[in-house]
C-alpha cells in the first residue's frame, strides 16, 4: 500500500485548519501530520518534519503564506506548496506563481477543489481554481508574449517582512529580535518604506499593509 502524502496546513484560524484536516484525512492517499498558525511556524514545522506538501493561507501573522512559500522554496526545493485563500485577486495569483506555489485554491470552494489541488501539486502539476483559469492564464500568457513585465512588488522581501510586523504593532526592538537584525537596521528599512511608498507614518503603513493583503483588517 502506498504511504499517504504528508501534509502541513497553515492558517491562523483553527477552524479552517480543522476543516482542511477533515477534508484531507478522509482521503486514503493524503494525511495531515502537522499544523501551523502562521507563516513562521509553517517554516519551522516544514524544517522539523518530513512534509510533502504545505498548504498556506495568504494572510497570516508574522509571515504571510507568500513569504513562507518563498522561504520554503529556498530551504526545501522539493517541497510542494499550495496557496489557500479567500482572495480572488490577480496580484496574489502572480505572486503565488513567483513564490513557487503549485496552485491557488479559494477557501469558499475548498471542499470541492482542495483534494484535487493537493494531488496535482504532488504530481508536480499546476492547479488553478476553475473560475480563474481562463482570465488569469490568458493575462499571464499575453504579458509573456508581448514582453510586458508581470506585476512587480514595489518593495523588497525584507522590507515586506518589516512592513508586516510594523503593521501588526511590533516595535523596532521587537522586530529586530524577531528578524535577528539591529533596531537601527529596522529603522532604516522603515524610512525606506515610507519614502518608496510615499507614506507618512505607521498608520499609513498599516493601511497599505491591509490593502495589499499582508494583514487582515
Automatic annotation (TrEMBL):
Domain HTH luxR-type residue range list: 148-213
PROSITE patterns, per the entry: HTH_LUXR_1, HTH_LUXR_2, RESPONSE_REGULATORY
Superkingdom field: Bacteria
GO MF entries: DNA binding
Ranges in coiled-coil conformation: none
The Response regulatory domain, residue ranges: 6-122
Keyword Manganese: no
InterPro entries, sorted: CheY-like_superfamily (IPR011006), NreC/VraR/RcsB-like_REC (IPR058245), Sig_transdc_resp-reg_C-effctor (IPR016032), Sig_transdc_resp-reg_receiver (IPR001789), Tscrpt_reg_LuxR_C (IPR000792), WalR-like (IPR039420)
Nucleus as UniProt keyword: no
PANTHER family linked to this entry: TRANSCRIPTIONAL REGULATORY PROTEIN NARL-RELATED (PTHR43214:SF24), TWO-COMPONENT RESPONSE REGULATOR (PTHR43214)
Name assigned to this protein: DNA-binding NarL/FixJ family response regulator
Amino acid at each position: 500500500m502506498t504511504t499517504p502524502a504528508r501534509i502541513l496546513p497553515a492558517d491562523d484560524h483553527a477552524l479552517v485548519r480543522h476543516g482542511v484536516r477533515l477534508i484531507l484525512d478522509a482521503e486514503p492517499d493524503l494525511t495531515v501530520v502537522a499544523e501551523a498558525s502562521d507563516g513562521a511556524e509553517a517554516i519551522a514545522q516544514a524544517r522539523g518534519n518530513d512534509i510533502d506538501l504545505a498548504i498556506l493561507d495568504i494572510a497570516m501573522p508574522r509571515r504571510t503564506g507568500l513569504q513562507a512559500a518563498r522561504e520554503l522554496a529556498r530551504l526545501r526545493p522539493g517541497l510542494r506548496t499550495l496557496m489557500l485563500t479567500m482572495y480572488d485577486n490577480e496580484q496574489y495569483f502572480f505572486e503565488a506563481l513567483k513564490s513557487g506555489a503549485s496552485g491557488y485554491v479559494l477557501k469558499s470552494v475548498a471542499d470541492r477543489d482542495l483534494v484535487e489541488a493537493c494531488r496535482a501539486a504532488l504530481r508536480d502539476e499546476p492547479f488553478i481554481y476553475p473560475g480563474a483559469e481562463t482570465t488569469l492564464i490568458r493575462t499571464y500568457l499575453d504579458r509573456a508574449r508581448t514582453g510586458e513585465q508581470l506585476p512587480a512588488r514595489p518593495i523588497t522581501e525584507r522590507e515586506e517582512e518589516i512592513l508586516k510586523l510594523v503593521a501588526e504593532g511590533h516595535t523596532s526592538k521587537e522586530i529586530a529580535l524577531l528578524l535577528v537584525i539591529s533596531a537601527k537596521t529596522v529603522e532604516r528599512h522603515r524610512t525606506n518604506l515610507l519614502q518608496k511608498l510615499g507614506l507618512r507614518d505607521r498608520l499609513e503603513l498599516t493601511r497599505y499593509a491591509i490593502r495589499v493583503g499582508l494583514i487582515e483588517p
